[in-house]
Design goal:
This protein is of the alpha/beta class. The chain has helices at residues 3-7, 14-17, 43-46, 55-66, 79-93, 109-124, 141-146, 150-154, 178-187, 215-227, 298-311, 316-339, 360-372, 397-417, 426-429; strands spanning 22-26, 29-32, 37-40, 101-104, 129-132, 163-166, 198-201, 204-205, 211-212, 231-235, 259-262, 275-278, 348-349, 352-356, 375-376, 378-380, 386-389. The longest helix has 24 residues, at 316-339. The protein binds pyridoxal-5'-phosphate.
Length: 437
């Protein structure tokens, strides 16, 4: 179709990697207009954790539309919103011993981050935020200031302020505990780093290259924040909603962030929906201070509630994610062992894993080959060097196997096509790893 070249802005990105016109999608499959079928390991950049057009949610959504339920209600109290809140409280917060106020922001993830940063700044009266190397928090100015990626940052056209950067887990090598460094600069009045309002962190850096932090590090981070009376914001927009194996990605660390942002897979159906969870003592918003027209996207409330009811009423789904995650890890370790010359370690969490090819060109060659074989999968990281597996969590195990087979085959072909044959020094450079260290 010519129209896309004619009048769609050059800003397109995913469309360039997957140059087809897509028409239909169901579960873990997406179809182009010629009827070609692709296994979807891109899954809306992690916004389709429950698969495309999940039949359970679709039924609820159609019922709601059929009954002329409210679609956009600004922030009016509606049935759909109340039902979502009740379910979220009962099935997500209470069983985990969590107590938060819910703020509905505009429907994109970055809007939730903007709100979270405002809450922290206004509560503490401090103006800086600490974020981490390779972190991604969205592309509106406040969130962008906390984002590392230079391409995104430079597009702002103005100086981005109010954020100090600290080394993420493992940034300086495995032996350096970067929270000790954080504690040190915050304890030293001449370090040049003023006490910030908050620290914002992803437990797995999605856009930054699928780097996951260790749970001890996360605990230490909370301890340092408490010590210096800084709020801890966990940006769980991509890692949350089950991706790592638990509803929130920080559950295993046993921490309680002061603020949590959720979006991407929260609605379950791919409908835009963002949420900020605020510990009650920090909820000092004045009426209407942070607003937005679409804070009451009721169709998203309906499907988000259905998603919680269907998948988070007991621990069955968690177990399923764990089994699949173990399988993915084993397969990636195997691929790395076969084609990575043994000098690597497989890492990643749950169903949030990747293969670090170190070199972006190699990673892109692999993903283009995969696409030709019927698998959609994206790259992430500073140089697009990491192949990121984000298939729906609900994927049938046979299709998961099939998708990874395609990855394996593509890795093999790309490595064979390289100038230097297999089993040579070539692989000393082409380190295949699912952690970008
Ligand atoms: C995607 C993402 C965002 C931004 O969400 P948008 O809906 O694209 O604005 C923020 N933080 C993280 C961790 C993300 O993955």
């Amino acid at each position: 179709m010519k129209i896309f070249n004619e009048i769609e802005s050059e800003v397109q990105s995913y469309a360039r990697s997957f140059p087809r016109v897509f028409k239909k999608a169901k579960g873990e499959f997406i179809y182009d207009q010629d009827g070609n079928e692709y296994l979807d390991f891109l899954a809306g950049a992690g916004s389709m954790n429950y698969g495309h057009n999940n039949s359970i949610f679709k039924e609820k959504l159609l019922e709601y539309i059929e009954s002329d339920g409210i679609t956009n209600g600004l922030d009016l109290h509606t049935d759909a919103k109340g039902d979502f809140m009740t379910t979220f409280k009962k099935k997500i917060l209470e069983p985990r011993g969590l107590d938060y106020m819910l703020q509905f922001t505009g429907p994109t993830g970055t809007n939730a981050v903007e709100a979270a940063l405002k809450v922290a700044r206004n509560y503490t009266g401090r103006d800086t935020i600490i974020s981490f190397t390779n972190g991604f928090h969205g592309v509106t100015l406040g969130s962008l200031a906390a984002t590392g990626n230079s391409t995104h940052r430079s597009a702002s056209g103005i100086s981005l302020q109010g954020v100090h950067r600290m080394p993420y887990y493992g940034y300086l090598g495995e032996d350096v505990n970067t929270t000790a460094y954080l504690d040190k600069v915050l304890s030293d009045s001449s370090s040049g780093i003023d006490t910030p309002a908050a620290v914002i962190v992803e437990t797995v850096q999605g856009e930054g290259g699928v780097t996951s932090c260790d749970m001890e590090w996360l605990k230490d981070l909370q301890t340092v924040c408490k010590k210096h009376r800084i709020l801890l914001i966990v940006d769980d927009i991509q890692a949350g909603c089950g991706r790592t194996g638990t509803f929130f990605s920080f559950e295993k660390a046993g921490i309680q962030p002061d603020i949590i942002t959720l979006s991407k897979s929260l609605s379950g159906y791919g409908l835009p929906f963002s949420l900020v969870l605020i510990k009650p003592e920090y909820d000092l918003w004045k009426p209407g201070e942070h607003n937005g027209t679409f804070r009451g996207h009721n169709l998203a409330f309906v499907t988000a509630k259905a998603a919680i009811d269907a998948y988070w009423s007991d621990d069955k789904f968690e177990k399923e994610i764990r089994t699949k995650g173990d399988y993915v890890q084993k397969r990636l370790e195997d691929i790395i062992a076969k084609y990575g010359d043994g000098n690597l370690h497989a890492r990643g969490r749950g169903m949030f894993q990747g293969i670090n090819c170190v070199n972006g060109e190699i990673a892109n060659n692999i993903t283009s080959k995969a696409f030709k074989k019927g698998l959609m999968i994206e790259t992430s990281g500073a140089d697009d060097q990491v192949i990121k597996l984000l298939c729906p969590l609900t994927i049938d195990i046979k299709n998961l196997e099939k998708g990874i087979d395609i990855i394996e085959q593509s890795v093999k072909e790309v490595c064979r096509n390289a100038d230097v044959p297999v089993d040579s020094d070539y692989f000393d450079d082409v380190v295949l790893n699912n952690n970008n260290k």
